[in-house]
Amino acid sequence: MEFIALLSPEYFLLAAVGCLIGIIFGAIPGMTATMAVAVCLPLTYSLELQQGLALLLGLYVGGISGGMVPAVLLNLPGTPSSITTTFDGHPMAKKGEPERALKICIVASVFGGLFSAILLFFFAPLLADFAIKFSYIEKFLIIFFALTVIASLSKNVLAGIFSGLLGVLLSLVGAYEISDGGNGEYRLITDSMEDYLYAGFALLPVLIGLFGLATIFDEAEKGIKENTSEDQVALSKGKRFKFNVFKGQGVNLVRSSFIGTFVGMLPGIGGSAASVLSYTQQKNMSKNPSQMGKGAPEGLIASESANNGLTGGALIPLLSLGIPGDSTTAVLIGAFTLQGLQVGPLFIGENLEMWYAMVVALVFANLVMFGLMYFAIRHIAKVVMVPKYILYPIIIMMCVIGAYAINYGIMFDVWTLLIFGIFGWAATKIGIEAAPLVIGFILGGSAEVYFVKSIESYGNLTIFFTKSPIAVVLWILIIASLVFSVVVHRRNKLQAALEEANA
Prior knowledge:
Blueprint: H1 9-27, H2 33-40, H3 49-66, H4 68-73, H5 85-94, H6 98-131, H7 136-152, H8 157-171, E1 174-175, E2 186-187, H9 203-222, H10 250-265, H11 271-285, H12 297-321, H13 327-338, H14 347-350, H15 352-380, H16 388-405, H17 411-427, H18 434-458, H19 463-466, H20 469-502
């Protein structure tokens, strides 16, 4: 019980503040939980690790949950994972039940978040204990598998694979350290850049640029259309919320939360896939499927419980294998990097008190999210009307200050921020996806080290196929993920062609 000493009043205060800021970010269309975590990451520099993680986990939970507000009131998903909340949330709001719709979402969200926290608590240590037995070969294959899953489940398989490989390539910029099995020489840079890129691109400016600055550039390109007061549905009227709306929805809640947690565990898939999958399952199982999409509470329950279920699920591969489950947990790696810690199979065993503190922070953030949104939803709903021309300059200033200060005042980090901000904005125009790229960038260095160490130890490539039964299983999973992606891609192509022919 030594971890209780880590749970100071500041720890709980930071988790609550993070949750509130996350809700605000999530409630503003165009701003995501990933952006909230990326922008606030430099603030953790001066904090103790447990305090920084409490702040970031609060941002994560709040950011995911806040997306329900514009989804219901404006028919705009605040975060990508809120897309299915619009299907029934906005029709319900149009019928004069906006507050009831939001409170159904809030209760479903807190259930999904707590459900995933429980699975995280019991499942992550088991997976970490199993992963400790992995050699360099299995570790390399795990990363290879993660990259194939990320790429194969992207919108375009080839673009996803290219994005992941581009991220790996960017991670190799700089000196090839002798301690990593290299020769100490520079690679992928010119002589004039050796002083700036000796250790490669700094992780945090890259993350803030791709997820913070690029989002603002994208919104600026669209013209930052403001929501007028006519767009918003008033909360002061309509049918009151009662908990009996959840009567008979126990299976829906548990199934959707489980789907959200499971999808969250798969690297790079994201919450939108979790909520769509849960919504589809509920529609297939529903006694009144014709009402889904017309303001059915069961649709909101499926969407939001899956949406928040992924928060704990995405932390499972991060803390047990060192592989981020989604783009937000990829940014969380930056917090560990700032504190000089490496997540992976040894993290939980060597940092048991920190592990317990993280689980407490996740549970506390979900409870704070419930308290804030359930009792103050009328005030929080006004956030969607805050002008973006006020918000975005403040966020840009926070990005620049954070990038400059993160490595004790290095101006090149600001240039890195700008370069990756512009790159992230331009990349979407040509089909490059940010999530595979970032996860490739984060895992690329480790993949190289494990590959080189494996060759040094065994001397040939065949060992990657014959080392152990685990290696064989991992190759089967890698092939299965690629075959699955081809099948899904062809099915989607056929379906699109069929819809076009019928149109």
